[in-house]
Amino acid sequence: MEEQLQALARGLEKGKLTVVTGLRRYGKTSLILTYLNEAKLDYVYIDCRLLPEGMVSLDSFLKLLEEELTRKKWARRVLSQVEAIGFSGLEVTLKRKGERTLLNVFRALEGRVLVLDEAQELRRSGYRFDALLAYAYDHLNLKIILSGSKIGLLYRFLRVDDPEAPLYGRAFAEVKLRRLREDEAREFLERGFEQEGVKVPRRKIERAIEKFDGIIGWLTYFGYSTVTGGEDIEAVYDKAAKLALSELEHALKIYGVGEKRYREILKITTLLGEARWSEIKRGIEARHGRIPNNTLSSMLKNLVDSGFLEKDGETYKISDPVLKHGIRKFW
Q1: Which positions ≥6 away from 205 have C-beta within 8 Å?
Q2: How far apart are the first and last CA of the chain?
Q3: Which of 78, 156, 194, 285 has its CA 20 to 30 A from that of 293?
């Protein structure tokens, strides 16, 4: 990923805000942390997937920030003069929770990098995190990296094209990750197995490339499973599919009684390979009764924005071949 590493480096060098996008398991987190560690930059990394379900409070964000600052050896030195910061043994404690404390911490972090991984999860908060980011952009010497696999939801959170939004008009760099090409996937697996001292038949590697379709996270999962357990590729494929399906089912629970319609959309799309809007509508109505056009359009947009579907012209398809296998075999 030399091209993407260079793009990330340019974004941090020339600007204050860099957005890293790519579907699930495209390697966003690995890319970011690899660059920051190799460049020996001080950074604070917040994984927003660890925020509690439901509405996100400022306190829950501050709790993650406390845990991350505790892990950083340099944090005690830079935070020693910050009001409302305490130290208990090796732990960093925010003695007073609230926006003022958060802003004081951000000021102390000037000259460093703040990473908000899967930042779209912050949209679930009544606190205006986008306004906080806009303040840091305008007033602090703080580099910010935002990443998101739910690309549409990330941009719904940022609202960079909305003149009424806090981040409107702020320049930012975007680093887009993609699937590996066939030759890149082959090199990735061959180098990995070579480093582990494991010989894997070429036929097995080619089969993995075919099944996991250049998605670096699934290729890594296959490589790890092969090195640690020597499992048959079909068994690894099924286990990966069940994992992807579990994540999907968790994500769909927020739709409550509408979940069955979302499931039907995904089943229809999997069955047809690529499905037009009209085909999806007919399929849903055949099993669940009439669905208003605007409701279906909204549901499809939610699935695309969440990264479960891709829209290609007039058709929709499952973006992840492993998830497609899981829907076909286990649903």
Answers
A1: 186, 189, 190, 193
A2: 35
A3: 156
Strand locations in the chain, DSSP E? 17-21, 43-47, 85-88, 91-94, 113-117, 143-148, 173-176, 275-276, 309-312, 315-318
Q: In CATH, what is the architecture of 2-176?
A: 3-Layer(aba) Sandwich (3.40)
Q: Where are the domains of the chain?
A: 2-176, 182-231, 248-330
Q: Write the CA distances from 265 to 157, 277, 299, 321, integer angstroms.
A: 25, 10, 9, 16
Q: Looking at the domain that runs over 248-330, which CATH code has it been given? A: 1.10.10.10
Q: Mind listing the pLDDT tens digit for each residue in 120-134?
A: 999 999 999 999 999
User: 95 and 88 in contact (C-beta within 8 Å)?
Assistant: no
Encode pLDDT of 255-293 as tens digits. 999 999 999 999 999 999 999 999 999 999 999 999 999
CA distance 293 to 183: 43
**Single-letter amino acid code for the residue at 88:** S
User: How many other CB atoms sit within 10 Å of the CB of residue 67?
Assistant: 13
Sign of CA dihedral 116, 120, 121, 126: positive
Buried b / exposed e along 121-137 (16+ C-beta atoms within 10 A): bbbbbebebbebbbebb
Estimate the crossing angle of helix 202-212 against helix 216-229, to 10 degrees.
140
Which of 212, 213, 264, 267 is closest to 240 using CA atoms?
A: 212
